[in-house]
Amino acid sequence: MPRPGVQGLGLPRHVVQTETPTRAAGLARLASFVPHGAAYARERNRVVPPHDRVSRLSPYLRHRLILEREAVAAVLDAHPRDVVDKFISEVLWRTYWKGWLEHRPHVWDAYLDQLRHDRDGLAGRTSVRYAEAITGRSGIACFDAWARELIETGYLHNHARMWFASIWIFTLRLPWTLGAAFFLRHLLDGDPASNTLSWRWVAGLHTRGKHYLAQAENIARYTDGRFDPKGELDEQALPLTEPPLDLKPRALSASVDLPTDLQSGLLLTPEDLAPEVSHLSKLGFRGVAGGWDETVGEALDLAPPVGDFSRVAIGDALSRAEAHFAVPTHALDEGDWLAAAEAWACGLAVRQVVTLETPVGRWRERIDQLDARLAKHGIALVRSRRTWDSSLWPGATRGFFPFREHARRQGHLDGLTRIDDA
Ligand SMILES: Cc1cc2nc3c(=O)[nH]c(=O)nc-3n(C[C@H](O)[C@H](O)[C@H](O)COP(=O)(O)OP(=O)(O)OC[C@H]3O[C@@H](n4cnc5c(N)ncnc54)[C@H](O)[C@@H]3O)c2cc1C
Fold this sequence. Notes:
Elements: H1 13-18, H2 23-33, H3 37-43, H4 58-62, H5 68-78, H6 85-102, H7 106-120, H8 124-133, H9 141-153, H10 158-171, H11 176-186, H12 192-203, H13 216-222, E1 264-268, E2 287-290, H14 294-299, H15 304-325, E3 329-331, H16 337-348, E4 352-356, H17 362-375, E5 380-384, H18 387-392, H19 400-409
Parallel strand pairs: 1-2, 1-4, 2-3, 4-5
Helix pairs in contact: 5-6, 6-12, 6-19, 9-10, 10-12, 11-12, 16-17
The protein binds flavin-adenine dinucleotide.
Flavin-adenine dinucleotide (FAD) is lined by residues 44, 54-58, 61-62, 90-91, 93-94, 97, 157-158, 161-162, 165, 183, 187, 189-191, 194-195, 198-199, 202.
Cofactor: FAD
Binding site for FAD: 87, 189-191
Domain Cryptochrome/DNA photolyase FAD-binding: 87-232
């Protein structure tokens, strides 16, 4: 079956213009960022396009086209630890948010419920303000420029994300859930954990009572004067509150031991697209499959470039898997992904389908559904967790700083664990 390729086949122009969704492009981006790693701590907060003071690695890390440990190892190979400490910390924020949500999957469900409620409740002036905000017509120049940048490029600088979310919530007084959904719709790195929890953090819901208020002076300083929204922002607003939500951590699902003596198929999802650099790399599989799922795109209302990024990235991962595992690969029909995955597994006549773990989010729901379907055929679905996640997620029960200390004890800050997954 034809697969979307990087050149030509099914690759829309907007994806070519912003990012190339391949592991090779992610590694090249990492290599070109490494020399700038030393200046990152000093320069990273400046928001000046084309944003070459930050790595812009997030779409690649988000889909695990490249790995967190590869990013950490690359900067440690080139610089002393203390010089790149800030960059490593930022990479760890990604893992922290993921681990935090794994301990509290209901926070994602609560977000989806509240989003439905807020969407249904949109009316009157709020509805007009919302329509203006998502089309870059709010009248606040910086906010409108960032809305357009996001739609056009699928990316926003971290500082701009913070300011944008803060203005959305505290100046425009729009529901935070709709802002988070607007980000997820357009970000090439859109991620249930980093996105939902960052919006909650800005709103003052993550650390109760502590919110992030965008200040005009700060925006003027870090945009080199490109914007100066003096007098336009509510710089005094109070944090949001919400009905009680249980934020106590629950036990993580157990990491499963992988039976290696069974006939197996390997299933790829856009949550982890580097199987050849994982603990699965030395296993034998009868076949490898993967494919985009239209219903996931619809459920999250993803903009076309976001689905296209995943589609092409999956095609790239299948090509690499074919070369590495030397077995046939199969592109699953995106119109009925579930039935296609079921048919593929049955056709391969395997006893188990192995997939690199899908964290909290829509893909996890699909994997749960596939699990139930395969069970009827006596085929087990094995979710295999990477060492990076199994060693770090348990530390994400409280705040970031205890988590970072946990990571230090595990050797991740020194790159001691850099070859753990291979
Ligand atoms: C409201 C809001 C929403 C966000 N939504 C997302 C999202 O959906 N997906 C996403 O990947 N990040 C999200 N972030 C975090 C952060 O803004 C992006 O990861 C970062 O801007 C990506 O750009 P970069 O690759 O150039 O980052 P760099 O500064 O070069 O950092 C390197 C890597 O570290 C990780 N990282 C850096 N900062 C953070 C952070 N604050 N939280 C989590 N990981 C971080 C990313 O993987 C990033 O690629 C959000 C932040 C805010 C404030």
